[in-house]
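In the current project phase, the collection of sequences with tokenised folds has grown. A sample record is quoted in full directly below:
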Amino acid sequence: MTSEDQPAAPAPTSLANRYGGQKRALTRKGKRNILIAALAVGIAFLAWVSTSAATNSVSFKDVGYSTPDATLTEIDFQVTKDPAADAKCAVKAMDSKFAIVGWKVVDIGPNAADAGTDGGRTTAHRTQLRTESQAVSAVVDSCWIPATGQ
């Protein structure tokens, strides 16, 4: 047999040749830096959550409603906001099939700061809503702080 007739020798198949050398372990300094970065991100997230909830927020609570007749619904609700801020709330009345039969945007002006438990942040409101047919429920759909100039 000649050297041309013999099969070629296989290439080295060690794992290091195939996949590369061993990975270096993370150093103690690297682990510490990752921990510090994760803590900083966590603290920044908590700060963002706590401040975003406190600035220019408005919340509402449905208290009740009444339907004196088929064309009128009265809705009682509470709004909690910064006492100096204006707000707008969209209220709606619905029939038995959840179709909207009345809709209105209510302007909520600045509150008079009183000695209440929340410093005058929460105020009670009652508004009348004209309906096109008998309503079986009425709710506040949403409230918001309008941009200046609206």
